[in-house]
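1st attempt posting a full record on here, be nice pls
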Amino acid sequence: MAVTFYPPNPINSLEKRIIKEDGSPLQGEIDIYRKLYTDLSASDQEWHVWHNIKFPRHSNNFNPYKKTSAQVDFMVLSENGIIVIEVKGGAISFKNNTFFFGNDFASKVKQNPFRQAEGYMYTLKDLVLNNIGNCFYCFAVCLPHTDRDFDSKIIDHQLLWTKSTSSNYSNS
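the predicted structure (as tokens):
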């Protein structure tokens, strides 16, 4: 069927549109945008994908970082429900229940991406959609440039997509 992105961006010019404050491309989000576009376009279902949604408030029901606002990397809507996706680009490593940028365990990721995505899901559910009934809500984390598995019992691996785990899902 079809996939529709909001805002609609030309797939071949994402490097000019999905950028950091310094103007450099956010390659992780660009890669996931393209992956969603390719895979969802081939699906039998109809899909709607929002990129970079900003909410002026954050739900207090799950807000471990005491944020006052929320920024969702991707929200995907289908007939089955809604999924909130948090993307962390570049190499990501994990040690002692902490996420790090790179492989040297020197630069901590400020927020656990799973807790971050879960908090955004609750913000969407509680504040934006006012707990619409009979709707399935879920969250996931995408680490598109990470080619290793995380050996941890606290990470739900069904909510994690990495370069190395993508083969478990037909690279989709």
